[in-house]
Amino acid sequence: MADRAPGATPGAPAATPPARALRALGPVRPRLRLLLRRFGPATVRGRATAGAVLVVAAALALASFALLALLKANLLRNAERDAERQAVTIARLAATGGLDRMRAPLPGADFVQVVNARGRVLRATPNLAGAPAFGPAKPAGPGTAFHTWRVRPLGAEHRLRVVQVTTDTPQGLVTVYVGTSLRDVDAADDTTTAALAVGGPLLLLTVALVTWRVTGRALGPVEAIRAEVAEITDRDLHRRVPVPPTRDEVARLAQTMNATLDRLESSGHRQRQFIADASHELRSPITVLRTQLEVALAVRDPELWPELIAGALEDTERLQRLASDLLLLARIDAAQPLAAVRLDLGDVVRAAVESRPGDRVPVRTELGAGVEVEGNELWLTRVVTNLLDNAQRFAGRRVEVVLRTAGDPGARTAVLEVLDDGPGIPPGDRERIFERFTRLDDSRSRDHGGAGLGLAIARDLIGHHGGTLTAAPSPEGARLRAVLPLAPASSPRTDPRRPAA
User: Fold this and answer.
1) Could you tell me if residue 217 is inside a domain?
2) In a domain, 196, yes or no
3) Residue 345's pLDDT is what?
4) 273-306 CB burial, b ≥16 within 10 A, e <16
5) Which backbone phi and psi does 120 adopt, to 5 degrees?
6) Fewer Cβ close by (within 10 Å): the C or N end of the chain?
7) 27 and 166, same domain (yes or no)
């Protein structure tokens, strides 16, 4: 009977199998992570399924260990409590000399044996008749101990839990052994383990199937969007991706993708229109220039050459201005956020007007003081120049430039207006004049050297400064109005006469 494991008092701390397993996996975690990255699922659906199965498996394993430990501890505690109660009762009888009144073990106990300090059996239940004493060694003193027998001293099929209670009697120390079978503990442990062994894989399989189906249904619209986008080329920008009827992130992704395709289609249309218009505008002066050069080559009279060369030079200058405007538009379209500095807009307008002494119609200015904005001086000067060029092209006898502030005290703006007494702008064309290569009177504008880019450039430049440029109603002639936000009081000041980068 010496083949028994030494018992321990319930509640003693011990390392659980999951904790030992985690400590053992510590050095190999990087390798596992590398293997999962190399050999793991390549699709989002597969990774989501594998992740869900791994999480549920880990949670199920921890829950199973905890359930088995709690169940075993609870059943063992109940068995120990019944056996200890009987052992204490018999120990009291031994202390008072009443061992002859000891009865058969009550339910919950399989045997009882009373041994004195010399190892002689004083009392025992009939199923231990003739059996030697259980104690492997003499007890050191009174107390209670618990042991689990790993042999079957009674021929039982289950382990035995023995409660040992030692007490003082008039004849010396007496030890009472009360044993109870752990058949219920073992049966519950086996049943629970079998249920977990069968139910665990079924649960993991169910989780994998459900996750696979759910992620497949969730990612189905994404795959449809991907397939549609993969088939869209630069010639199929009119196509749109399907929008699922749900109101989730996938539906918003499809709506955002369609909005992006709308912008791409609009941008492509504008680009093609711009290329067509630019080709048309460049073709006309190039054709005229070639004709003049061919005439000059054919004419043998040297007296006519200066006139022919002057006409060719005029068309060359027109080509140069058109090329400069096209280059500026390309730079504006690709411009980064504006690196603005604080400027006095009145000084910028005054300098732009004073740099045009040869204008056909004198320009009258009415400039408010202290109108400061944040912007690029070269670009703002180009805005004023383009607006004045447009006014000079159509004005009869009057061109005015007015600069003032407007708005509420918390949101004041700078308002720049250029007025002329020309034929004016019809209400239906007040937005169309800002389109590129747009001329309301094509022949007249071409005679005056306009290519229909000045107002488009001015609006783009104002837009880069956070403002707007519109054609306002006017009782006489045209009124072009540019509105810019005023500079905040904390922005740094710079010299407006120095060109900004």
Assistant:
1) no
2) no
3) 94
4) ebeebbeebeeebeebbeebeeeeeeeeeeeeee
5) -90, 135
6) C
7) yes
Q: What is the pLDDT of residues 267-294, one digit of tens each?
A: 777 777 777 777 766 777 788 788 888 8
Distance CA 318, CA 451 (A): 9
Asked if residue 205 is part of any domain, the answer here is no
- How far are the Cα atoms of 229, 370, 433 from residue 74, in angstroms, in the given order? 62, 87, 89
Buried b (16+ CB within 10 A) or exposed e, 177-204: bbbbbbeebeebeeeeeeebeeebeeeb
- Residues 325, 341, single domain; the answer is no
Q: What is the pLDDT of residues 178-209, one digit of tens each?
A: 877 777 777 888 888 888 888 889 988 999 99
Q: Give the structural domain span for 168.
A: 4-186
**Above 60 in pLDDT, residue 447?**
no
Tell me, yes or no, whether 213 lies in a domain: no
**Quick one: CA torsion of 81, 83, 88, 91, rounded to 10 degrees?**
-170
CA separation for the pair 412, 466 (Å, rounded): 13
pLDDT at position 405 is 92
Is there a single domain that holds both residue 12 and residue 114? yes
The DSSP bridge partners found for residue 385 are none
| Kind of pairing between the strands at 399-406 and 363-367 | parallel
The string of pLDDT tens digits covering residues 205-243 is 999 999 888 888 888 888 888 888 888 887 777 888 888
Residues 359 and 461 reside in one and the same domain: yes
For range 135-163, the mean pLDDT: 63
- Per the prediction, the chain carries an average pLDDT of 78
State how many domains the chain has. 3
Residue with tokens 């509420």: 408
| Dihedral angle computed from the Cα positions of residues 34, 40, 45 and 50, in that order, rounded to the nearest 10 degrees | -90
Which helix (H) or strand (E) segment holds residue 406: the answer is strand 399-406
Q: Is the pLDDT of residue 6 over 50?
A: no
Type of residue found at 190: D
Domain of 476, CATH number, reads 3.30.565.10
* Sequence-distant (≥ 6) Cβ neighbours of residue 436 within 8 angstroms: 273, 274, 277, 329, 452, 453, 456
Pairing of strands 111-116, 121-124: antiparallel
Place 480 in a pLDDT band, splitting at 50, 70 and 90.
very high
Q: Are strands 363-367 and 172-181 parallel, antiparallel or unpaired?
A: unpaired
d(CA 175, CA 177): 7
Tell me the C-alpha to C-alpha distance, in Å, between residue 157 and each of 181, 186, 267: 9, 10, 86
pTM of the entire predicted model: 0.51
Contact status, residue 472 vs residue 322, Cβ threshold 8 Å: no
Listed residues 329, 345, 364: the one ending a domain: 329
CB 8 within 8 A of CB 148: no
**Spatial separation of the C-alpha atoms in residues 294 and 74, rounded to whole Å:** 112
Residue listed under structure tokens 């008092």? 9
